[in-house]
Amino acid sequence: MIKIGDQIRILLGGCLLFCVLSGCATVGRDPRAQAVFVRSDPPGALVTVDGRDVAETPAYVLVPRKKEPELTISLDGISRTVKVPTKYRWSGSFATNLWLYIAAPIGWGIDLLSGAAWNPEDPPVVNLRKPGDDTEYALPDPSRIAIEPPLANSQALSDTAGHLLEQTLKMQRPIQPNEYELLPFDQTLSQFISRGSDFDARGSYDNERNLFARLQPDAIWRSKLALTESGDYIINAELQDVRTKQILDTTSVPLDAGGGLARTWAWMYDLLNLPNTLTVSNVNQSMTLERANGLQPVELRRASSTSWVEQGLNYLSALSLTNIPTYRTGRPGRWQLTAYPLVLVSRKVLSAQGAPDLEGREFYRWWGSIGYGPELGYQVSRSYIYANFFVHGAWTEISWRERGEDFSITKTFVTTAFEVGYLYSLTDNWSVRGFVSSISENADAWKAALARSSNLVGGPNTFIGDTTNTTVGISFGYSFEPLITSAIKRIQQKDILIPDALRNLTQK
Q1: Taking 70 as the threshold, does the pLDDT of residue 353 lie above it?
Q2: Owning domain of residue 88
């Protein structure tokens, strides 16, 4: 049997081995590529990376991390191969690998061999002019435009403002054929968030460049919400050319000129925090009941059933509808306090151990509850450490078979639960968490079931102490958009939140 201390050492050793084999610098964001700004004279040249046409100059382009990455830039029959300058990543490779101590040289070597040790930099302007050509060329107007999440007091207000700004721009500036493309706010939102731009922050310099390289916009609508003297929200937006950083246009849109409806929706979002994730858990439950009169305590543990179906149900025995925060890749760590509802359904087969009169007896426990409570968490990128406390309205049924007869006890009650855990967002939708939780089961139900099954004199009064159920487990979750949230967004995108001025504009 492997002891707990050995398990911890094995885990730490595995983490160390992973870092050594992968190279610590290669585990970060965009580990194999970095965005550089490519310019040519004249502009409009085609940029090719590793045989793929990726953009037209001037543009941000992702190039592979290696000692001497190359680009090919072509225009009107003239082609140039450009070597991208690089610098050694002293902080990203050398310093990061130092924590490996004696294994640090291995990490440095892997980073050098894989290219992760090098940071590409912007190449100089590439001259593609033909001899004698001294024409002054101007940049073409932006043809691909994205909307950055508006800065606001809450995520709900920012989302509302982003959708309304998109709708307003389409109405105020109708898109003509072959003129420009306004990227849908819903489709680009996750990419902005993953690069550090959200309702309360803007992405770092490197994250922003990588985002531009992936979305390939020519300009970005950047905005923030402000309060007018009358107490209404207004969206102040600027169109910034990402190639020159110049401000090309401005606009202001009343968020809600009709009486505070947008703020009502935002308040509902923040208060309810509707369940957005379905999880399935593998938990190891244990519960001990002390007994009076010198009798041995009863310990309830997960039963080992001979049926593979029962074993599967017993290991994946808890389903829940819960709320998890959207991960913020690239964001500095932050504390957050939320409150949300939780729906839990659980089925366990528990075996009584320790007491001769109950040894080997199996109890089938069904559990269903709806809870609500606060959660305090600390989030760094995709990682989230949390602690929560819930008050549940619960129903439970305990059943067992004895001497050919089926017995059951059913109770409804109010209980509490406490949980601490670590969650990691694998993708936008999938997450995994490890947790330890403590939930108070119905003492009367368990005492009555155990007393009746043991046939002891004294009945339930034989048992003393509580019935707190301690569980250690791991769960996998799939996140979705709640139906109510989808309905509210559809309402927001129609004319309920369109100000009168905008209605008049559309009628013209």
Answers
A1: yes
A2: 4-127
